[in-house]
Amino acid sequence: MLADGGDCLSDLGALREQQALFGDVASDATAHRLIRQIAELPDGLERLRAARAEARSRAIRRGVRPREWRIDLDATLVDAHSEKEGAAATFKHGFGFHPMLAYLDGTGDALAGRLRPGNANANTAADQITVLADALEQLPRRIAAREPVLLRADSAGATHELLEFCHDGNIRFSVGLPLTETVRAAILALPETAWQTALTQDGQPRDHDGAQVAELTGLLDLSAWPAGSRVLVRREQPHPGAQFSFTDHDGRRFQAILTDQPDGDIAYLEAAHRGHARVEDRIRAAKDTGLENLPFSDFALNEVWLELVLLAQDLTAWAQRLLLAGELVGAEPKRLRHRLLHTAARLTLHARHAILHLPARWPWAAALATAFSRPDALAAASR
């Protein structure tokens, strides 16, 4: 129901009224009791997360794995339109919650999330460490132990506790660094020869906006940060109409990155860090998959709801990468529903078999028919 765009328990009715397609669907009251039971069990959420980790391991074995293991950490605001336990005023003068989330770049896996009051800070290291630890628990142990894992975050991730946690756990990091006066002075002290052309996400020279990157490590005292820390900086021409800030200089905008990656190609490292922006797409998809509305008054029940939202995102992401091809693999939930999930069709029963008749002229009928045939092929290949 959440994957299909529902945002409250009463939306189960859309599935319940189609028994031939979905079978028996729990009543709203039964679903509510189940969520409450999970919330009241001492290890209810942990058991649900363990089940998600097992399902993720199976999806990875089927082929849902990124080229590189990059975990993106970010927080987002969720408004509450009525009094709910744990809701509080937010820094944007709203009222609601401020959950912390972690996603796996390249696959869209929703690794972890923690519900927090609206007045929780984005740079609370204890919350960041908790969510990152939860995210690592979602990866098969052989991956976390043998393959390099990179944490990416914006400047809220530049906390000593979080980065020390990464360093101690052999997790590489790449986080935004606030432009303090010291950092700004180091940038302005760089000679022109220190700058090189930045790269696009495809690895091509980024010439259209004059973006360039340089390294500041030798000009800053980084002794307070984990061993091996480096600072990279990007400068670029702001897009037309952009507002300048006091950290901008000579018509250019600057952004700094703190990382411990040893790669000597700073343009590649900077481009890889900018890929963190894709987490905004995943958060937007989460809000379109039930996160926009936390439906319960009890905080504990909304914690379970958040975990179910992440589960629904996982199911959608795995279906896209295992069953679909082309642009549908990266389609946002709204487009996926319009083109596939809400396709008009006719279901008939014959000789104890259910036959789904798709409209031949529907542009994505072939993609949907192929998607139905792929689970059997995947199961056969894994035997």
What does this structure look like?
The protein has 383 residues and is an alpha+beta fold. α3 (28-40) packs across α11 (299-323) and α10 crosses α11 (299-323). The longest helix is centred in the last third of the chain and has 25 residues, at 299-323. The protein is globular, with a radius of gyration of 23 Å. 39% of the residues lie in helices and 17% in strands.
Top keywords for this entry?
alpha+beta, globular, 3-stranded antiparallel sheet
Q: Topology of this structure?
A:
Blueprint: H1 13-16, H2 19-22, H3 28-40, H4 44-62, E1 69-75, E2 78-79, E3 88-89, E4 95-97, E5 100-104, E6 110-114, H5 125-137, H6 141-146, E7 149-153, H7 160-168, E8 172-177, H8 181-188, E9 196-197, E10 212-215, E11 230-236, E12 253-259, H9 266-274, H10 279-291, H11 299-323, H12 333-341, E13 346-350, E14 353-357, H13 365-382
Parallel strand pairs: 1-7, 7-8
Antiparallel strand pairs: 1-5, 2-4, 3-4, 5-6, 8-12, 9-10, 10-11, 11-12, 13-14
Helix pairs in contact: 3-11, 4-11, 5-7, 10-11
